[in-house]
Design goal:
Helices cover 36% and strands 27% of the residues. Strand 2 and strand 3 form a beta hairpin. The radius of gyration is 16 Å and the shape is globular.
Length: 226
């Protein structure tokens, strides 16, 4: 059990079955949680991504549960390291997210919590595709340095309020996000963080990402406390 700013946080490893594959994850549940955020990791990343773990800790300290999962199995990750093609298989990643969403909706510790998605890089597109397919289950989306443009024809069908966060020095990705933003027909916002590059490694930039994400999720997911 971890503690964040006086808030007790229960952590446990979980396994989710998708297409006969075992997807590993870590569920962190603060006391009196108000919502749960499912993290979809970026290209070549995993649930141990230090950037996503930092954002997750900020959300947990604010009273939001988090589920960080590996969208690819260990064997698939090994293949992807050589070919880099699975990280662009948006339909596969979206399917895994949907299975994790179903798991959250059935798990006794999260069944009452509204669900949000936090996506990075190509997995931001998977989050949008999954949200379009499960409009009643997903209530907020935040993309960090994402490729929402890869969600393609799913974009107009997304119902969840969506925040796109991009670094001010990440030129091509800014344009991709603007293109995707124009196709979204929901509450939406594009937040460009000045001086930040793609991974938000500059001092204070990832902290700003976490702050924006928390504000978005806290407003959109705030509901019954369990």
């Amino acid at each position: 059990m971890a503690t964040g700013l006086g808030r007790e946080i229960q952590e446990r490893d979980v396994t989710i079955i998708s297409d006969n594959n075992r997807i590993e994850g870590t569920l962190s549940l603060p006391d009196r949680a108000r919502g749960v955020v499912l993290f979809a990791h970026g290209s070549g990343s995993s649930r141990f991504s230090p950037r996503n773990q930092y954002v997750a800790r900020v959300l947990q300290q604010g009273g939001l549960a988090t589920l960080l999962i590996d969208l690819l199995t260990h064997e698939e990750e090994q293949v992807d390291m050589q070919t880099a093609h699975l990280r662009f298989d948006i339909d596969l990643l979206a399917t895994r997210l949907i299975e994790a969403t179903k798991w959250l909706a059935l798990n006794e510790t999260t069944v009452k919590l509204r669900i949000g998605y936090f996506g990075a890089s190509t997995s931001a597109a998977a989050a949008l595709v999954a949200a379009a397919q499960r409009p009643d289950a997903v209530h907020a989306i935040v993309s960090r340095g994402g490729r929402p443009d890869l969600a393609g024809i799913a974009l107009p069908h997304v119902k969840a309020p969506t925040l796109l966060i991009v670094g001010g020095n990440d030129g091509p990705v800014i344009q991709m996000n603007r293109s995707a933003l124009a196709q979204l027909n929901v509450e939406k916002r594009l937040e460009i963080i000045p001086g930040a590059t793609h991974l938000f490694e500059e001092p204070g930039k990832l902290e700003r990402v976490a702050e924006l994400a928390y504000q978005w999720f806290n407003r959109c997911l705030g509901g019954s406390v369990v």
